[in-house]
Amino acid sequence: MIPMQRRGLFTLAAAGAVMGAGLAAPTVLRAQTQLRTLADTLAGDNRFREFLNIITRGSMVDKFRQAAPMTVFAPIDAAFTGAPAGLIDQLLGGAQSGENRNDVDRTRLGALIDYHTVPGMLRAAELTGDRRLRTTNGADIALSSANGRLSLQNPAPAQQIAGFGAAGANVSARPAQVVQADIMASNGIIHAIDQVIWP
């Protein structure tokens, strides 16, 4: 009688251990595969410091943490070297002595940031052919794909209603190239680009 009870206890303990391990495993797997938000993903990648600064100064960080999926064409830091002289500083509140660095042009910064975002989650494999995408600021962006390369540009500089002004007419017409695609986040996807795209 005693051996039977021991065997029963052993069987129950073993079953509990197996069940416990089975319950713990998914938690470990979830922790390993959990993605960060778009905002945190950008912050964790040193290539996007300038873009993240613009997002932060434009008070739009929460937008990049929200649940709604979004595709972000994020300019890498080197992309800002081709910006019109002084324009970024002007948007961020001025760089000249005597100007107030806190006087951020949030309306135009918002229009610029929104011109780099598209609603929904679009992987590189879905961005094929030549077409236009409607950005979150309401203006279109032209997409071209050829030989496995993706490029984007403003299809009609200074003619779109984008809440920014005519900056698109004053910059290089060279399209932005996607230099790294499909950087995944919990609420969207990032494609790194080598040029700022001006609305």
TrEMBL record:
GO molecular function per UniProt: cell adhesion molecule binding
The protein, known as: Fasciclin domain-containing protein
UniProt source species: Falsiroseomonas algicola
One cellular component term from this protein's GO annotations in UniProt: extracellular space
Swiss-Prot/TrEMBL keywords: Signal
PANTHER family: FI05614P (PTHR10900:SF124), PERIOSTIN-RELATED (PTHR10900)
Stretch forming the signal peptide: 1-24
Keyword Acetylation included in the entry's annotation: no
GO BP of this protein: cell adhesion; extracellular matrix organization
Top-level taxon of the source organism: Bacteria
Top-level taxonomy: Bacteria, Pseudomonadati, Pseudomonadota, Alphaproteobacteria, Acetobacterales
Pfam families listed in its UniProt record: Fasciclin
Entries under PROSITE patterns matching the protein: FAS1
Claim: DNA damage is one of the keywords in the record: no
Domain (FAS1): residue spans on this chain: 35-197
